[in-house]
Amino acid sequence: MDIIKQPWPWYIAGPIIGLTVPALLLLGNKAFGISSSLRHICAACVPSHISFFKYDWKKESWNLFFVLGIVIGGFIATLFLSDPGAANINQDTIRSLKHEGVRDFSGLLPQDVFSFKQLFTLRGFVFMVLGGFLVGFGTRYAGGCTSGHAIMGISSLQWPSLVATCCFMIGGFAMTWFILPYLLKL
Amino acid sequence: MKNIKFMIVGVLFGIILVKSEVISWFRIQEMFRLQAFHMYGIIGSAIVVGIIAIQLIKHFQLKTINKEPIIIPEKKFHWGNVYGGLIFGLGWAITGACPGPLFAEIGSGFGVILATLLSAIAGTWIYGLVREKLPH
Asked: Does ipTM top 0.95?
């Protein structure tokens, strides 16, 4: 049980994530992808006569069950399979983040950035609300996210997914190195 | 309920995301600062396993459990892959989460991330609203 409760190494987690690809294909011809669920939620709840949301989302409802499963999995893993504590990250990362203004390193997310108390501050709004908006807008514009492009797309050797994945990384590097230090000071 | 099996795969996937700390904002920072191999190892080994699995499926012409031939949807290039990809990358480094981890974080008890998820849904909705005006 001790081994299970510790964080799992990349060489266990990565291959199991990779197996999601054939699992979904074999179980019903489903292409691994998570950001589509956001589109289905729009189509189901607020289609508003927008042509992009006029399709039979019920045919894609497997995807909503899949993401509901992810929520449940997060619950199970945290409640029953984990010892609470900080992520075991590189000391250099901690040092630079401290320098940039992050104070809390006790959990998986810094509570001084991501919490209900921070939601109505400028910094909290940028990190939680604006950040989420960019994720939802960008993934749909790109036609997929880390799962749909980086894992499913590259696994099926499709070069547009490799292009998209490179752009994800370029955007992430640009934000982390050049913009994030200013956002953390808001 | 033919969708329950997909929910079970989702549960396993969510457990992995938490247990390997993929849902941690700090892990994503570490990745973008090139200060750890962890995230690169996870994504890289997932891709290697995915490539091998799809090659095996094609080679043996495996069928689904309902005996249907397996179809892998084609991704056609459009400039949204670039522009949208860059925008998502900016957001990924801020939130420290792509869409999968957002769901797993909510399940893990980070209730405030519901605001991030709602905002991501709003972002998708706005994309649907303005997509004909965007370069693709």
From this structure: yes
